[in-house]
Amino acid sequence: MKKKKAALLFSGGQDSTTALGWCLNKFDDIHLLSFDYGQRHNIELKSAKRIVKEIEKNFDLDTTKISKSLIIKIRNLANITKSSLTSNLKIDTSKKIPNTFVPGRNLLFYNLASSYAYTNNIENIVSGVCQTDFSGYPDCRDVTIKTLNKAINLGMEKKFLFHTPLMFLSKAETWKLSYTIGGEKFVNIIKKYTHTCYKGERKKLFSWGYGCNKCPACSIRKKGWDEYNLKKNDIQC
Ligand SMILES: [Zn+2]
User: Fold this and answer.
1) Bridge partners, residue 7, by sequence
2) Which residue of 50, 109, 140, 186 lies most exposed, with the fewest beta carbons within 10 A?
3) How far is the CA of 225 from the centre of ligand 1 (A)?
4) Domain chopping of the chain, boundaries
5) CATH of segment(s) 5-195
6) How far is the CA of 147 from the centre of ligand 1 (A)?
C-alpha cells in the first residue's frame, strides 16, 4: 500500500507538538520542518529534538514514522520586518494586531514547506495554526490558509492538502486533544518540553509549563490550561 506522507511545520511549541501527535496517528511517513527565521528566542528549536525523544521514550506513538527532521533557515526575514519576536522591541499587544506579528511569516513557511513537499512527493502539509484564541494573527486564519492552499496548488500544479487540525479549537480544547491523542503522558510532555513564552523563559515550571507567567503567550496558555482542568470531562474535540 502507498505510504501516506506528510510534512509538518514544527516549531517545538504547544500547538505544533499537538499537531505532531495528530500526524503520528494519521500518516505513515512524516517530515518535520522547523524554521530558523532569526527569532529572538530559539528555545523552541532546541526543544523540537527533545520533544521527539520524549515521545519515543514515554509512550507508544510510533516515532519511527518520522523519517526526516530539518531546520530551514530564512536569513533576511528579521532584517526586513519589525516585530518584537525578531528584535528587542518591547512586546505591545494594545493594537488589533500585536507587534509580535511577523508579517508574512506563516505564508513564507507554507511556501517553503510546499517547495519541499513538491520535491519529496508529499501530498499533505500540516500545521498547528489556530484562529480561535490566538493573538489575532491574520496568517493563522482559516480563510488565509485555504486561499493559500489554492494559490500554491495553482502555482505548483499540485494537489496539496493543507491540514489545520487545531484551527477552530480553543486552547482548552487543544490540551484536551493532546490528552485524547496520548493521555496524561503526552500532556506532560507538552507541558514540560514545549515553549510558548515570548520571552523564552525556562526558569520555573508552572502547572501549565515553563514560562515568564506574564507575557500574552503565557497568559493564553495558562488560561487554556485552567479551563481544560475545570471542564476536562465536558470538552469534546
Ligand atoms: Zn511568557
Assistant:
1) 31, 125
2) 50
3) 14
4) 5-195
5) 3.40.50.620
6) 32
3-state DSSP assignment of residue 178? helix
Rounded CA-CA distance 111/36 in Å is 15
**Nearest one of 218, 172, 210 to 189, comparing CA atoms:** 210
Q: For 66-89, what is each residue's pLDDT tens digit? A: 999 999 988 887 777 777 777 777
Distance CA 148, CA 162 (A): 9
Which residues, given as ranges, of the chain have pLDDT below 70? 40-44, 133-135, 237
Q: How far is the CA of 114 from the centre of ligand 1 (A)?
A: 31
Q: Ligand 1 centre from 93 Cα, in Å?
A: 13
Crossing angle of helices 43-58 and 171-193, in 10° steps, is 90
Rounded distance from Cα 129 to ligand 1 centre (Å)? 19
> Mean pLDDT in the chain?
88
Q: Are 36 and 153 in contact (CB under 8 A)?
A: no
First-last CA distance in the chain: 30
Compute the distance from residue 216 Cα to the ligand 1 centre, in Å. Answer: 7
CA of 221 to the centre of ligand 1 (A): 9
* Distance of CA 23 from the midpoint of ligand 1 (Å): 27
Question: What pLDDT sits at residue 133?
Answer: 61
Q: List the beta bridge partners of residue 124.
A: 6, 161
pLDDT digits (tens, 9 = 90+) for 153-196: 999 999 999 999 999 999 999 999 999 999 999 999 999 999 88
Other CB atoms within a 10 A radius of the CB of residue 118 amount to 14
